[in-house]
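Pipeline run #58 for the internal structure catalog. This entry was flagged by the ingest filter as a single-chain record with no existing model, so it goes straight to prediction. Upstream metadata was stripped on purpose; only the residue string is passed forward. Reviewer on rotation: M.T. Logging verbosity set to normal.
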Amino acid sequence: QVQLLESGGGLVQAGGSLRLSCTASGPTFSSYTMGWFRQAPGKEREFVAALIWSSNSIYYTTYADSVKGRFTISRDNAKSMVYLQMNNLKPEDTAVYYCAAAVMLRLRVSSAERYDYWGQGTQVTVFS
């Protein structure tokens, strides 16, 4: 069982930056694919970024087109944490951001239903 807790959300002006953190508790964190999703009011939850587990201990990154070049996902296995650095934020980035985990997930990582564990979310609001 993995528990996830996000932090770092807040209110920021367009063009600004935020770094979200997700703390995981539970065993074998290093074997999990970790993802970030977001959900804006009245919209479906959408994929943001993922760090994909692989058997050679290299994690591959993938991003939604809407955040590519602005957001960076990273992880620290020693601390069981995953981060989302968000730069050049836009009002359309406003949403609740969720951290998600799935053991050894490699395919269709942008599909929310593929993840087993979710955090409670942290609100990000970008104003112009």
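catalog note: The CA atoms of residues 4 and 119 lie 5 Å apart.
catalog note: The chain is about 0% helix and 50% strand.
status: ready for reviewer M.T.
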